[in-house]
Design brief:
alpha/beta, Rossmann fold, Phenylalanyl-tRNA Synthetase, Chain B, domain 3, 3 domains, six-stranded mixed β-sheet, 16 helices, 39% helix, 18% strand
Length: 466
């Protein structure tokens, strides 16, 4: 390896790759079994050839996952990788998965479902082979795409710092498996030049040119526009920005660990550190660390928030999140819910343990919101808001039932009219928007303010079977 690393006549991809890899082994390359994820595309194929060029003797296994999303083209890619591995005399493992079915059952996007299936396969082979390294062909262009993808969806410095050349595998049960991305300093154009210079072939994924995925639109529309009209050096600038954010993100993590060790009360931490700690606690629970959820936990100790169907709370002075259990001192008067891509299903405490489920639908996903089945209610999500509160009735609450065109009525008067016993009134759950508008009361008609109309773009479906 040393000869390649020092030889200025070597291709730039070889030199940049060697600079990353030299830390993984003592001259002869990474020790133990290594895995190389190969899709058949230019970047992963270039990486495979560079690895063999630098380290012809290492124990390298090729992994290919067939997502079965592009029909004959997916089969073509698999066959190409099979032939390539055979030609290079490398062992090969192929995984296959019904990504469409996975996306439908989990309510994830196709892109996220594909990643889940792919990484599950990688973890399985890593455990089976006791692998130490997983090589992937991400390049500098993937970094800039990831930056905008996360920026548009909302992210902190932890997310915006992007991928690292060497990082821990994002999963459990794989030992100390490291993900290695030696091409992060290489551009796609450099990878293509390497392949053409040596006469190597690869396959193209036709879906990369479509506008079906946000990542594709960022790559094919947004980035060229920004580079052409605003900043020709956009790529280099973003990579430098991500490196800065990465350093700052590391500093936040180190400072949090210091505060934990010294037992400094959580409420005295800087807001940036509080947010990072709670976000990491949510990730540790397998929940999405949205800014709304993070801030709610910070500002409302002792109150519960629903995250992917589980109720959590943060006690005063503590950064950790604990699962809500009966009798642990939490405030049963208020639960925050933030429905997302996945259905949110939870059991509300109290007599009867009401089970409710929240789903976000498009207008076409609700069979007919005008004639709903029993136990189902539909609301206009834009009117309800990205998050809302579930709580019990309080004195002075007012409600506008559907059909009441103007004004509101005291909930107490509605309970009296419907002959609901006073003890039962305090057990019923209701939904309240962030603006304080009650849109749902258990057992009553829905609220007028948040009803679904012909102009509704997203529907919040509430299921509460009796």
């Amino acid at each position: 390896m040393g000869t390649h690393f020092k030889n200025e006549d070597s291709h730039v991809c070889v030199r940049k790759c060697a600079a990353v890899l030299e830390a993984l082994g003592a001259g002869t390359g990474p020790e133990g079994v290594s895995l190389a994820a190969v899709s058949g595309g230019a970047d992963s194929v270039a990486l495979l050839h560079v690895l063999r060029e630098l380290y012809p003797e290492i124990s390298l296994h090729v992994l290919h996952f067939n997502h079965q999303l592009r029909g004959e083209e997916s089969e073509r890619d698999e066959e190409f990788v099979r032939s390539l591995a055979q030609e290079m005399n490398l062992p090969l493992a192929v995984g296959r998965g019904n990504v469409s079915a996975e996306a439908a059952s989990s309510k994830m996007s196709l892109e996220m479902a594909a990643r889940e299936c792919r990484y599950r396969f990688f973890a399985e082979k890593a455990r089976e082979l006791h692998a130490r390294f997983l090589f992937m062909g991400h390049h500098s262009g993937d970094q800039t795409e990831l930056f905008f993808l996360r920026l548009l969806r909302g992210a902190s410095s932890r997310g915006l710092k992007g991928m690292r050349a060497v990082s821990d595998f994002p999963g459990e049960g794989v030992g100390a498996l490291k993900v290695v991305r030696p091409f992060l300093e290489c551009s796609r154009e450099e990878n293509l030049d390497y392949l053409r210079e040596r006469g190597y072939s690869w396959v193209e994924d036709s879906s990369n040119s479509t506008g079906d995925y946000l990542r594709n639109r960022i790559r094919n529309e947004l980035l060229p526009l920004l580079a052409r009209s605003y900043s020709p050096s956009l790529g280099r600038t973003l990579l430098r920005t991500m490196e800065i954010l990465g350093r700052e993100s590391d500093y936040l993590s180190e400072e949090i660990e210091r505060l934990k060790r010294e037992g400094i009360p959580f409420e005295s931490w800087h807001t940036a550190l509080q947010r990072r700690a709670v976000a990491e606690a949510l990730i540790g629970r397998g929940a999405q660390p949205t800014l709304e959820a993070v801030d709610y936990f910070i500002q409302n100790p002792g109150k519960a928030h629903s995250c992917q169907g589980e109720l959590y709370l943060r006690q005063e002075g503590i950064w950790r999140l604990c699962a809500v259990e009966k009798g642990n001192g939490w405030n049963t008067e208020e639960i925050r819910v933030s429905p997302g891509e996945r259905p949110e299903e939870l059991t509300l405490p109290g007599e009867g343990a009401l089970r409710v489920k929240f789903e976000v639908l498009g207008p076409g996903d609700a069979a007919d919101w005008r004639s709903k089945p029993e136990g189902v209610e539909y609301f206009d999500l834009d009117r309800v808001g990205d998050s809302f509160t579930l709580r019990h009735w309080r004195e002075g609450d007012r409600f506008q039932p559907i059909g009441l065109r103007e004004g509101t009525r005291k909930l107490q008067d509605i309970f009296v009219d419907r002959k609901i016993p006073e003890a039962r009134r305090h057990q019923l759950w209701l939904g309240e928007t962030a603006e304080g508008v009650i849109f749902w009361v258990e057992g009553l008609r829905i609220g007028e303010a948040c009803k679904v109309t012909e102009s509704t773009k997203k529907i919040l479906k509430l299921t509460s079977p009796s």
